[in-house]
Amino acid sequence: MKTIIVCVTSDLATDNRILRHCELMHQMGFKVHLIGRVLPWSPAMPVLPYPVHRVKLPFLKGPLFYLSYQCWLFFYLLFRKADIIWANDLDTVLPSFVISKFRGLEYIVDSHELFTEVPELSKAPIKKSIWKFIEKHLAVKANIFITVNHSLARIFHETYGINPKVVRNVPKQVDIPPAHLRNKISIPEGDLVVVIQGSGINKGRGLDETIEAINGLSNVSLLVIGGGDAIDEAKQKTIALGIQAKVHFIARVPYLEMMQYTQMGAIGLAYDADPCLNFYYALPNKIFDYFHAGIAVISGPQPEISGLVSTYKCGYLMKQISPESIRWAIAFYQKHPELLATHQRNSKKASQTEHWDLEKKALESILQGL
Question: How far is CA 59 from CA 25, 55, 96, 305, in A?
C-alpha cells in the first residue's frame, strides 16, 4: 500500500473536494494522510477512516502566514513516511517539491485555480512574481499536474507546454434532507429567495453588487451561505441600506445542512464581479450544488459557468455584472414564474449527469497509474 500525504492550506472540515479525493484514494487501497489547517472558527472534523492533522499557526493570512506554513510543512514532510506527496495549489508547492526531490518521492500538483491571477496579487507585483516563479519552476514540474476545468487546462498547456489532467469539483449524489422552513430564519412566505453560497465569498465575488441589487427589489430575500472576507463588510452594508430583514447570513455549515439552506432558494447566483482571470475562468462547485438543489441559476459571461447554464437551459445569462443587471435578472424571473419553474426542472435534470460518481472516473484513472 502506497502512502499519499495530501497537503492543503484550507479548513479541512468544509473542503469537500479534498475529502472526496481522499475518500477515493482510501477506497482504492492507498494509505492517506491528510494535512491542513485549523482556524479559530473551524468546525469539528467528521469521522474519517484515515489520519488527519490540522496545524494551528500564529498567523491567519498574509506573508507571515505563508512563510510560517512553508516552514512547518517542510519539516513535517521531512520526517513522515510517504511514497507520494499530493500538493494542492501553489501555497503548498514549495515544501512539497523540495521534499519530494530530496527523498525521491512521487510529486503531484492539484491546481484548483489560477493562483497567480487572484485579485490580491494584481497590485502586488513582487508577490505575484514570487508565486509566478513557483508556478513556472516548481509546480509544472510535477509528475502529474491536475486542474479543475478545461479552460485552466488549456491555459496551463499554452503557457508551459504541459498536459494537465482535469478533475472537476462536482458533488456526490446523496439523499439531501428537505429544505429548512422559512420561519427558521424569518423569511416571509411570499418572497422570492435567491441564494449565493460558497466557502470563499471574498471581495470581488459579486456579493457587494448583489446586496445593492436586492436593495431595489420588492418581495425578494437574499440568503448568503458560507464565509469569506467579504462577509463582514456586506453585513455593514445591509445595515447602512436598512435592508437587514431582506438579507440573511448563514455561517459555514456541513454540506448537507448547507444544501438544506440552498434548497430554500428559487434561484442560485453564480458570477464574479472582479474581471481577474482567476475568476473569469473559474468553475465553482456552487453551480453544481444549485443543480442538485434543483434551483435556477443566474450567471455572468464566465465561460465555464455560462457553458453549463446554456447546455442545460437552466438559467439566465447576464452580459455584465452590475447591481442593475442583477436586479433586472431577478425581476425578470419574478415576472415569469413559468420560465423559472422550467429552469428549476432543467437544473434538477442536470444533477443526474453532473455528479461525482461519473466525474471520479477521471481521478480513478490517475490513481490507477500510480
Answer: 31, 11, 21, 34
